[in-house]
Amino acid sequence: MSANPGTKVSEILVKKFKCFHSWEDEQEQLWLQQMASQGLHLKTRNVLGVYTFAQGTPAQIAYRLDYVPNAKWNVANVIEPDDSYQQLLIDAGWEHVLKANGWQYWRMPVTDTCHAGKAEIYSDDASKQMKYKRRMPGLLFWFCILTVHLSLPQSSLHTLGDGKLAYMIVYGIAMPITIYLGYSMIRIYLRIRELRQ
Amino acid sequence: MSDINYSKYLPLSEATFYVLVVLTEPLHGYAIMQKVEDISEGNVVIGPGTLYGAFATLEKQGLIAKVKEEERRKYYELSDKGRLVLAEHIRRMEIMFRNAKLALPKLKMEEAK
User: Fold this and answer.
1) How many Å apart are CA A35 and CA B16, to the nearest integer?
2) Given A76, A109, A165, A181, which residue has the most CB atoms within 10 angstroms?
3) What is the ipTM of this complex?
4) Domain Transcription regulator PadR N-terminal, which positions (chain B) (predicted)?
């Protein structure tokens, strides 16, 4: 069996499930770096937190997660992730890995001495804070929508009929999500405050 | 041109100062990063994400303006307002520098004691 010229010899793919909250981007970066040092290089990630890695040679690779949502209604600190955003990072030596829910995954080998110490997308705390601030409006939007639906008696949720099974199920899902969104905002706010000091 | 409220923009941070200095000619993002690092003798290294955010801020403040877009790269240059703000910053820095020169020998005397 010979490999088709021009196409890659079949890669060995490894899937891993891991859950990171949106305030744990630094932990996620570190985990991806650890995976790379074991020869597992990130290929894709789905919304459920399943990461697909391609098995290769172990390498020291820095991963950076940037949050740049597309949404136009995101009025706070709008930066549009257009082509020039990606081009600037590519020019600076970063490789774009994937894009998921507004998060952009970038990586750069750190063994290269000319890049050592430069492997940062954000070089000051103020711009790091902006990254977290951009995360807020999206969370706040869904938090408000859900809170309104949970609290207003005339909302669509309550037309399911109080006490009925459908109502219990929807309420049982919506309530924890609302609490989770609220908690996420608190954690991100604390992260911003930490950077301010 | 109406009077500029300089205190709104000054003092410039070291990074912003260098970005404005190199934008006396039209440049794109990565060229700015390289040039800033070069002329600051390695003291100021700006990350690409930080610079991208700075473009948005400086453009909104009207200190820089996009001059063209080529091969996915945006080129910026100082606006007239940006030139005035940078000139005012340099004028204030010159005063600071003269005062620094006067203060320096006195500091050395303190050390000798």
Assistant:
1) 37
2) A181
3) 0.85
4) 20-88
